[in-house]
Amino acid sequence: MNESPVSHDELNQAGHKYDFAAIQKKWLPVWDEMKPFATSDSTDRRPRKYVLDMFPYPSGDLHMGHAEAFGFGDIVARYWRQQGFNVLHPIGWDSFGLPAENAAIKRGVDPSGWTYENIAQQKNSFRTYAPSFDWDRELHTSDPEYYRWTQWLFLQLYKKGLAYRKDSAVNWCPFDQTVLANEQVVDGRCERCGNLVTKKKLNQWYFRITDYADRLIDDLKQLEGAWPTKVLSMQRNWVGRSTGADVDFTIEGRDGVVPVYTTRPDTLYGVTFMVVAADSELAAELVTDAPAETQSAFAEYLDRVKGESDIDRLSTDREKTGVFLERYAVNPINGERIPIWASDYVLADYGHGAIMAVPAHDQRDLDFARAFDLPVRVVVDTNQPVTGAIPVLIDGELPDDLPPTDPKVTGEALVGPGRLINSGPFNSLSKNAAIAKVTEALTSSGFGRGAKNYRLRDWLISRQRYWGTPIPIIHCDKCGEVPVPEDQLPIKLPSAEGLDLQPKGTSPLGAAEDWINVSCPNCDGPAQRDSDTMDTFVDSSWYYLRYLNATSDTVAFDPAEAERWAPVDQYVGGVEHAILHLLYSRFMTKVLYDLDYLTFTEPFTSLLNQGMVLMDGAKMSKSRGNLVEFASELSLYGADALRVTLAFASPPEDDIDWADVSPAGSAKFLARAWRVAQDVTSAPDVVWKKGDPALRRVTHRFLADAPGLVESFKFNVVIARLMELVNVTRKVIDTGAGPADAAVREAAEVTAVALNLFAPYTAEDMWEKLGYEPTVAKVLWRKADPTLLVEESVTCVVQVDGKVRDRLEVSPKIDSDELEKQARASAAVVRAIGDREIVNVVVRAPRVVSIATRK
Ligand code: ANZ
Ligand code: ZN
């Protein structure tokens, strides 16, 4: 940070002091009047850009994290306007959700009142912070004008068979008394309140996102290079596509087959036991004929397993537990008889809930085998090289001096590449070749087939809480589920007055008798509304489209507008949304594409994840006592200094420690820049060309470099360069050609236009001082003059035998070798030398090269 003090002069000229509060007060009403960022003019022919910040959740006032994210988004939005684009940069509120409801219960107030008061406060802070929003498109997801269309969207999915209800064991938070999506369970605990999550069987609404699993992975290709690599892989892992084979095992004394899913069909000869999920139906069935002792051991075990989270169950560094079911399966490939165990490390709802255990090559199976002393058989020799020719077997063994490592002894499963052994006709094939060959053999013999599996589950969208979008379904005894006719939308939330919002496992809406009891749209008989509300991730899965027609009461959004503006060119927000929000928006976009409402399949073309704002190395929080309040920083330093500080602190992806930055230093820099504009004495029509050439070169270098830097999000570098420009300008004013020099005006104007990206108030005030009308936000970026970008050059004379044959324009810093090379390469020089031999070359860089030849 530039810590040089504000000059004496600057501070002492009464009435001419840089006063951020006065400047803010002066320009806010002007901008309110002008609406410089409105995008309502449909005849505007400029090319378009859509710049979007993840909309805030109104839980209180804005915080420093908002200041950072919205500051960065605003730099991008303002930048594209200067580059001649019509930029859509809207704002709204993600205003439904549990925190509002919990806060409302705690304070005994209405969730709606609480929410809209917070919004008013945030809006007020935003006004001062002055991001370049088009306020005419403001939306709140909790307005009936918005959620009417969320309900419409639900109905479109319902009609397509993508919204359905089923009974299932769901994640249940006993504290919040609500269902949680898998995504909302972190380390077995509720993402919101941190309490342990349990399982509960409930009838719930789902969106069939698993139908889109392949596309959710494959379409990530469109985003490579434009989304952070980390987010791309988080998306990929969340969907978790795995490829392998299903193998059909039979069970002694039981009809039919039990398929198991494996990613390693090449290890089929190494199967030494089978494991079924303890909480699967198959386990319950198999144990029924077992001795009473086994049955009670199993029942006890099952009780324990029911309280465990999937994450714990899959963990590799956990002691293995299980119960032998006294039953045997038969391996279809070699007829071998293997014992069947029940354990928690196999999940009931992945693959088929049963596995073929290959302890030699799977760590969890090995841990289990070692715990219960089950056999381990190596079938892939990982000491064998897999490249080169296939080795010839000697006595049925690979010709290897190094015997295969024994995992039963080492405790480490052999998971790497190698060649097959102990595997009948597949011996000596490489692991990868064997995976293909065994799958083929299974398919042709009818014992199995290639298969895929996904970690992704359908999206559980129903919540038993009040403050959300009501699900537009009516339940009729006669007709069953009846969708609410679209012309009856919105189904408005009843007033919270008189409703008990305390969580108790059923939706509070069920008690709103006047609301819940309706007549069936189909048969007119008595019926009831669905009392659940939707997960707020449904609201935010499509909001980027609603901005396009935020006030329409005839459509959710107009496909023609979507064609014009969408997809979003630049999305800005926190990495905490790297999985869910992005996954759901991507899903909804694909659904709307399939329904012919959209012509693109990915909603956000480019993504910027800002880092966090820390204090003293830790995440800010009230309880930790290191909370820096946005409101107090804003009144201490002003919006511009805050914005500059955040942009200057580091590259935007990195965390910022507020203890290490200097908003006061930023304010000083802004005062210096502002003072330069104040000092300019030339008129706007002064001829720049006549200005100080050195200053002009710095100005134009900046003009040339800044766009690329902004586009690669190097905001901190742009500010550093701007500081340099201001310093050089100041020198010319104070000790050089003086304030009347044309180059000083040019530099001041370029500074104002560039500062519009980071410090809009200061920029606007400078622009006025330079003699222009508002607003500087609409001024286009100037093109750098290429003649000012080349380094200064000198003329080098090249002589051959005393005669000047060429003149080269070269850098004054050129070295002798390079200069000689250039001289010898000159066509005129080559011609002058002809086929004579060079006997001497004298180089005096950078001015002269003299070549002598033998005559
Ligand atoms: C035999 C085998 C041998 C396996 C080997 C792995 C290595 P992903 O990649 O996650 O799809 N598996 C299958 N169903 C399971 C379930 N319901 N719960 C827990 N584990 C299950 O992993 C697939 C592998 O995980 C499968 O391949 C299976 O173990 C196990 F050397 O089969 B494998
Ligand atoms: Zn009916």
Automatic annotation (TrEMBL):
GO terms for molecular function: aminoacyl-tRNA deacylase activity; ATP binding; leucine-tRNA ligase activity. Keywords: Aminoacyl-tRNA synthetase, ATP-binding, Cytoplasm, Ligase, Nucleotide-binding, Protein biosynthesis. GO terms for cellular component: cytosol. It is found in: Cytoplasm. It catalyses: tRNA(Leu) + L-leucine + ATP = L-leucyl-tRNA(Leu) + AMP + diphosphate. GO terms for biological process: leucyl-tRNA aminoacylation. A motif ('HIGH' region) lies at residues 56-66. InterPro entries: aa-tRNA-synth_I_CS, aa-tRNA-synth_Ia, Leu-tRNA-ligase, Leu_tRNA-synth_edit, M/V/L/I-tRNA-synth_anticd-bd, Rossmann-like_a/b/a_fold, tRNAsynth_Ia_anticodon-bd, Val/Leu/Ile-tRNA-synth_edit. Residues 695-815 form the Methionyl/Valyl/Leucyl/Isoleucyl-tRNA synthetase anticodon-binding domain. Residues 236-442 form the Leucyl-tRNA synthetase editing domain. ATP binds at K622. Its main location: cytoplasm. Its EC number is 6.1.1.4. Residues 27-224, 456-658 form the Aminoacyl-tRNA synthetase class Ia domain. A motif ('KMSKS' region) lies at residues 619-623. Belongs to the class-I aminoacyl-tRNA synthetase family. This is Leucine--tRNA ligase. It comes from Mycetocola zhadangensis. The gene is leuS.
